[in-house]
Design goal:
10 helices
Length: about 350
């Protein structure tokens, strides 16, 4: 491969599969920063992108996949700020307009111009219509989107930018409620790439009793390793068992990392009056909001999406302190197809991470 070419895992047609190919080496201009990728995470959001039908997503093909990225700054545009050349960083993956009030405070995940960016098919983040980090190199629009990680291992740093950040943002959505009653029960549904980090974040930042639910025994074992107080498979009596664990009152909060019909039904069944339901997963389930209805009185429902740059800084700090650790399965960049297949089959324990080889 010549020095003016580099490798990237590209989505070239809707429905995939992604293809490892050569692309021109990017050169940063203006505020752009070039990152040499050390590790890139793979998650079910990538599967949703790969499996999308034409017209489902407002993105133009082709583009490079990968929105969880850790690496080292190797080149900066003449107007670039942020970390210097040589610094190791993790990338804040949602890329907003950079100029609205939300982006000004690091909340690119809720950019005020997101709808306009979608309408322009401009892409809204790394691997989301814009070239992402499943590559040797990643061109980042601005140094403000980079968070230094010091000597944190790349395998740990990369998953923080989505799995860790989204889990942290979801916990933040319910932390006020949990803080009002020390020891209150919180149910984590789905202990996969995000859920196992949510368990750790709950243990590190709240006094809640953490109750885990997953369809896989190995996921429950992972929940136990991460500090969950109790874990169970979904059974006909699971809601009653979980309520029993909360003294019969129900959970003060439910974090649903699945979002399927059955997971939402369980969430509603175990949520107590005045409780918080954060729906993070995109499993196709639907929740009817009606008054009166299935939701308990005073219930609040949120749809957390990714997280803010300041929250990413907090997640990195937790990881550097040693209280947050991602379970990782490693794959070479050249074996990206195998990683996608393993993730699709449910065979990944924790987070799949690709490494340039």
């Amino acid at each position: 491969m010549s020095t003016d070419r580099t490798r990237a895992v590209r989505l070239t047609r809707w429905g995939g599969p992604p293809i490892l190919t050569e692309v021109p080496r990017p050169t940063p201009t203006g505020e752009e920063v070039l990152i040499r990728v050390e590790a890139a995470g793979l998650c079910r959001s990538d599967l949703h992108v790969i499996d999308a039908r034409p017209g489902d997503l407002p993105y133009r093909l082709p583009f490079t996949l990968g929105h969880e990225v850790a690496g080292r700054v190797v080149e900066r545009g003449p107007l670039a700020g942020g970390p210097a050349v040589g610094e190791r960083v993790v990338v804040h993956g949602p890329w907003g307009c950079g100029g609205c009030a939300r982006c000004a405070i690091g909340a690119d995940n809720y950019c005020d111009r997101r709808a306009a960016l979608d309408a322009d098919r401009a892409g809204t983040g790394a691997g989301l219509g814009r070239d992402g980090g499943m590559a040797d190199l990643l061109l980042v629009p601005s140094g403000r989107l980079l968070v230094p990680v010091g000597d944190l291992a790349a395998a740990q740093a990369a998953p923080l930018s989505d799995a860790g950040l989204t889990a942290y943002h979801a916990v933040a959505a319910v932390r006020r409620t949990l803080g009002q009653e020390p020891g209150a029960g919180v149910v984590v549904v789905g202990v996969g790439g995000l859920g196992h980090l949510a368990v750790q974040i709950l243990r590190a930042t709240t006094t809640a009793q953490v109750l885990a639910v997953d369809v896989r025994e190995e996921a429950l074992a992972l929940a136990d390793e991460c500090g969950a107080h109790f874990g169970t498979l979904p059974r006909p009596d699971t809601a009653a068992v979980l309520r029993g664990r909360t003294g019969g009152v129900g959970a003060a909060a439910v974090l649903d990392f699945v979002g399927s019909r059955s997971s939402l039904e369980l969430a509603v069944d175990v949520l107590r009056a005045g409780g918080e339901l954060a729906v993070v997963g995109s499993g196709g389930g639907e929740l009817t909001v009606r008054k009166p209805g299935a939701l308990p009185p005073g219930a609040r429902v949120s749809l957390p999406f990714w997280g803010t740059r300041p929250e990413l800084e907090a997640v990195v700090a937790l990881a550097c302190e040693g209280v947050l650790k991602a379970g990782v399965e490693r794959f070479a960049l050249s074996n990206a197809t195998e990683a996608v297949d393993r993730l699709r089959s449910g065979g990944v324990r924790g987070r799949a991470v690709l490494f340039p080889d």
